[in-house]
Structures are given as structure tokens and as C-alpha cells.
Write a structure and sequence with these properties.
Layout: H1 2-17, H2 51-54, H3 57-62, H4 65-89
């Protein structure tokens, strides 16, 4: 009887001895972009020239309709990019230079 009890005890202990504790979760440090309030950007960039200023009337008249449409589309993109960036950069400025 003692032998059976000893074998059961040894079997129980060896079952626990083979298990490793669960690993601790690894801590991974990563860069995370965050918005930071900064001082006022005073020098606003110059707005892109209007299409009628950049392209003379004679040159505009010689362009094909598809080329005109492409130029207008590109000008709209330049204007939107400028307006978005400039407005974001100077949103908190009451005295921003270059307001047109």
C-alpha cells in the first residue's frame, strides 16, 4: 500500500515538475505619432499663382480642351493643398502674416 501511495505521489510531483511557468508578456516599445501644440507659424507660404496668371491668354487659347482640363485639375489640387496646409499651420494665429 505504501508503495502505491509513493508511486502516486512521485507521479503527481513529476507531472508538476515538467511544466514551465507561462512566459511573461513581452513589452514592445514603438514610436507613435501624436499631435503636439506648437507656437504660431507666422510666415505663411505664398499662395500658388492663379492659372490665368501663370498661363498667358494666347498660350491658353492654343491648348487642346483635354490639356486645359488637366491644367485646371492640377491647379485645383495645388490650391487645395496650399489652403489645407496653410490653414492648419496658422489656425491659432490671430496675427498671421500673409493673409490674403
Amino acid at each position: 500500500m505504501k508503495t502505491i501511495l509513493r508511486l502516486a505521489l512521485v507521479a503527481g510531483l513529476t507531472g508538476c515538475a515538467g511544466r514551465a511557468p507561462p512566459p511573461e508578456p513581452a513589452i514592445v516599445y514603438r514610436d507613435a505619432p501624436t499631435a503636439v501644440a506648437v507656437g504660431c507659424v507666422v510666415d505663411r507660404p505664398v499662395a500658388p499663382d492663379a492659372l490665368r496668371v501663370r498661363v498667358p491668354a494666347a498660350a491658353w487659347a492654343q491648348r487642346a480642351p483635354g490639356a486645359k482640363a488637366q491644367a485646371v485639375r492640377a491647379q485645383a489640387g495645388r490650391r487645395l493643398n496650399y489652403e489645407t496646409a496653410a490653414a492648419a499651420a496658422t489656425a491659432g494665429c490671430a496675427d498671421a502674416k500673409g493673409d490674403h
